[in-house]
């Protein structure tokens, strides 16, 4: 009840204003009063209507009662009042409140423009009418929308404010000044119920990040009529230019990280730091691929051995081995031997654990026949020995079938094959770069 | 894609067995050819390609070993005056920002990986990285198809 009463007060003020203003005019005054009373009636009626269907009816009523007065307000035109039916028809098909308010705003603007040359009281009356309409619509929205819907209300409210305030400013800044105190009161009254507890005064400030040209209109109309451009911040964020720049920067970084996420495989990490690590690993992997491809045709296991050393030393958590070079080769051989022994031991107990151990190192098991097939197909080896060196880029992790007749792929290092191994199958591990 | 005439890829298989040093030298040559062709294909459109071109040309003039140490300096020196000013300004600003908030160690690592990345802030660095990754992938595909076609 209370909001309605306050609105009634505002309406009363408007009514008195309009009456005063209209008494100066000639004929349409009576009609104005009637139309205003008609306006007030829907207010009473709006309490009880159900939210589902009542909204359009309410607005249609409003439009039908108002529109005759619009025509009267226009000082130039003196035509007969259009029938409410036609008005209703013309307005009927509007689906959304936003459209209606936008059309109303544009109509108001037109009237302002056309009526700007008229007497001051007329334009004031027009503006007052506009504000009254705005209040009505706000109230209608406020009554039938749930509080959860308020952001939508804010947007439309913001649009309304922009529209009306803009036209107010554009129309007659000086003329309205003396009436602005009264306007302020109804405007102050509306936020209390228009936004269901959230002030629309701060809410228009908070709803959009930038306003239209007359952004200062969202503020009180008490300010002088110069339109001021101000950037509105989102709710809960400062308008400090530094923080705005900071926010922009963060947004740019976020969108670039998203683009990179799509490029890099395994890019499903949500954490920025882990995403960065993935990116770094991927770049390193690509550069390594280029390096390996540049040596793949040069032949000789010697070319591949430094790579093997690098990979196995990495797999062994190589803090003490350097990848590549003579030293690396030697220590890689040692680590390879260690790995080989380890794998042999594991294979005795359980094939699965051996496979897992190898997989953890990024290596795989492969039948010798397949290995020889691959080696003869892809690489030419100058050594006549049947050493098969796999192409390090074949990521065949988890490929090997678990059969007892399987053997491990052998790689001969430049330092000479470490023959040995049980049953003539020198179990040197195959280096396969696995990128899974 | 420009085809480098100096690429020794075609000659590799015909030579007899060579020492590992020779192999390593040739590998390095091939790798440099790959990178320079990649950078030249991109041209001056990207920061990393410009930095790569400068590094490679400086390296070719002076000698491969010292090219890496000279890369940063030469990339700054050889740029035009306007570029240099903007680049040093960006570098100074980036440095100041780094002092202010200290980037995570991943950023430093990435700057080292991507050529020309030292003088970029995180925002530009990420963009350069994306383009660099795309070009690297294409390069790998090209090289692999070349290697597959060789006998």
Automatic annotation (TrEMBL), chain A:
Residues 189-199, 393-415 have a biased composition (Polar residues). SMART domains: HLH. Residues 237-286 form the BHLH domain. Keywords: DNA-binding, Nucleus, Transcription, Transcription regulation. One of its GO terms (cellular component) is nucleus. It is found in: Nucleus. It comes from the Eukaryota. GO terms for biological process: root hair cell development. GO terms for molecular function: DNA-binding transcription factor activity, RNA polymerase II-specific; protein dimerization activity; RNA polymerase II cis-regulatory region sequence-specific DNA binding. This is Transcription factor bHLH66-like.
From TrEMBL, chain B:
Residues 15-58 form the IBH1-like N-terminal domain. Keywords: Transcription, Transcription regulation. Residues 1-20 are annotated as: Disordered. One of its GO terms (biological process) is regulation of DNA-templated transcription. PANTHER family: TRANSCRIPTION FACTOR IBH1, TRANSCRIPTION FACTOR IBH1-LIKE 1. This is IBH1-like N-terminal domain-containing protein. It comes from Punica granatum (Pomegranate).
């Amino acid at each position: 009840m209370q909001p309605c009463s306050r609105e009634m007060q505002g309406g009363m003020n408007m009514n008195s204003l309009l009456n005063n203003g209209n008494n100066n005019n000639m004929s349409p005054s009576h009609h104005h009063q009637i139309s205003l009373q008609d306006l007030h009636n829907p207010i009473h009626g709006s309490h009880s209507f159900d939210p589902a269907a009542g909204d359009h009816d309410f607005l249609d009523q409003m439009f039908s009662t108002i529109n005759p007065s619009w025509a009267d307000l226009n000082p130039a035109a003196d035509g007969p009042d259009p029938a409410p039916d036609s008005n209703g028809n013309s307005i009927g098909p509007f689906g959304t409140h936003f459209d209606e308010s936008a059309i109303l705003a544009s109509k108001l603007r037109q009237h302002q423009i056309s009526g700007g040359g008229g007497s001051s009281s007329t334009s004031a009356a027009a503006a007052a009418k506009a504000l009254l309409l705005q209040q009505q619509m706000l109230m209608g929205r406020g009554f039938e929308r749930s509080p959860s819907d308020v952001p939508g209300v804010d947007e439309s409210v913001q649009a309304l404010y922009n529209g009306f305030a803009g036209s107010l400013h554009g129309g007659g800044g000086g003329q309205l000044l003396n009436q602005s105190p009264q306007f302020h009161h109804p405007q102050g009254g509306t936020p209390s119920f228009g936004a269901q507890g959230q002030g629309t005064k701060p809410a228009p400030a908070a709803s959009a990040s930038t306003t239209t040209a007359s952004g200062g209109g969202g503020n009180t109309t008490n300010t002088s009529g110069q339109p001021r451009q101000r950037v509105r911040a989102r709710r809960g964020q400062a308008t400090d230019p530094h923080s705005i720049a900071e926010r922009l920067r963060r947004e740019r970084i976020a969108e670039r990280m998203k683009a990179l996420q799509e490029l890099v495989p395994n890019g499903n990490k949500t954490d920025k730091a882990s995403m960065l690590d993935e990116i770094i690993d991927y770049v390193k992997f690509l550069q390594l691929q280029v390096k390996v491809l540049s040596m793949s045709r040069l032949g000789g296991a010697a070319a591949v051995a430094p790579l093997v050393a690098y990979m196995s030393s990495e797999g062994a958590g190589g803090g003490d081995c350097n990848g590549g070079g003579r030293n690396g080769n030697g220590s890689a051989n040692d680590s390879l031997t260690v790995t080989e022994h380890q794998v042999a031991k594991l294979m005795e107990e359980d094939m699965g654990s051996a496979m897992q151990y190898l997989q953890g190192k990024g290596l795989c098991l492969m039948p010798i026949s397949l290995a020889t097939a691959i080696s003869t197909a892809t690489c030419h080896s100058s050594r006549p020995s049947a050493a098969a060196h796999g192409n390090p880029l074949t990521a065949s992790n988890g490929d090997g079938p678990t059969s007892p007749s399987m053997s491990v792929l052998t790689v001969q290092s430049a330092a000479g094959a470490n023959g040995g191994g049980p049953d003539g199958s020198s179990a040197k591990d195959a280096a396969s770069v696995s990128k899974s | 894609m420009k085809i480098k005439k100096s690429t020794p890829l075609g000659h590799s298989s015909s030579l007899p067995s060579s020492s590992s040093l020779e192999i390593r030298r040739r590998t390095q040559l091939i790798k440099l050819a790959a990178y320079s062709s990649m950078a030249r294909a991109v041209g001056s459109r990207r920061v990393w390609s410009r930095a790569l071109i400068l590094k490679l040309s400086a390296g070719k003039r002076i000698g491969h070993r010292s090219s890496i140490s000279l890369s940063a300096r030469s990339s700054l020196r050889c740029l035009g005056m306007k570029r240099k000013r903007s680049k040093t300004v960006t570098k100074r600003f980036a440095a100041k920002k780094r002092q202010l908030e200290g980037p995570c160690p991943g950023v430093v690592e990435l700057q080292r990986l991507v050529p020309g990345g030292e003088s970029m802030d995180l925002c530009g660095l990420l963009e350069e990285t994306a383009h660099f990754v795309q070009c690297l992938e294409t390069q790998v595909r090209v090289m692999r198809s070349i290697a597959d076609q060789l006998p």
